[in-house]
């Protein structure tokens, strides 16, 4: 017989993986270039920002799992945190019209990638604290 904690861990993992996958899919849709194609071409700037998005989302999901008693609460807070991350990305892009982060990332500008990655990781930490 499999212990209940083991099954719960698998369930929380599966749900978190689905939320992460969905959020990354949304991020892929809101960028004007093809993230997968840029990564396949070896665009390190796009790869770095994708890493930071997933890391920030992982922090959010960690908090959602750690600070809620039910799977339903975890899903709600996980989706809420992911939505905040996506909204923050769009807001940052809108608030920096002189810096075309999308074009710069597509060109492989690593300085822009590091700045944007720092923002995503910092947002993940802040949202993590807000939902805990």
Automatic annotation (TrEMBL):
It is found in: Cell membrane. GO terms for cellular component: plasma membrane. It is a multi-pass membrane protein. It comes from the Bacteria. Keywords: Cell membrane, Membrane, Transmembrane, Transmembrane helix. The chain crosses the membrane at residues 7-28, 44-62, 74-92, 112-131. PANTHER family: UPF0719 INNER MEMBRANE PROTEIN YJFL. Belongs to the UPF0719 family. This is DUF350 domain-containing protein. It comes from Heliomicrobium gestii (Heliobacterium gestii).
């Amino acid at each position: 017989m499999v212990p209940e904690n083991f099954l719960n861990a698998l369930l929380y993992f599966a749900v978190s993986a689905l939320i992460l996958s969905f959020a990354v899919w949304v991020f892929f849709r809101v960028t004007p270039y093809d993230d997968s194609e840029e990564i396949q071409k070896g665009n390190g700037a796009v790869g770095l920002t994708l890493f930071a998005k997933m890391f920030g989302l992982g922090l959010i999901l960690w908090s959602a799992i750690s600070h809620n008693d039910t799977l339903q609460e975890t899903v709600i807070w996980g989706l809420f945190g992911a939505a905040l991350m996506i909204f923050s990305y769009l807001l940052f892009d809108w608030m920096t019209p002189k810096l075309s982060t999308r074009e710069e990332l597509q060109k492989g500008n690593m300085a822009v990638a590091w700045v944007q990655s720092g923002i995503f990781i910092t947002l993940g930490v802040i949202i993590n604290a807000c939902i805990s």
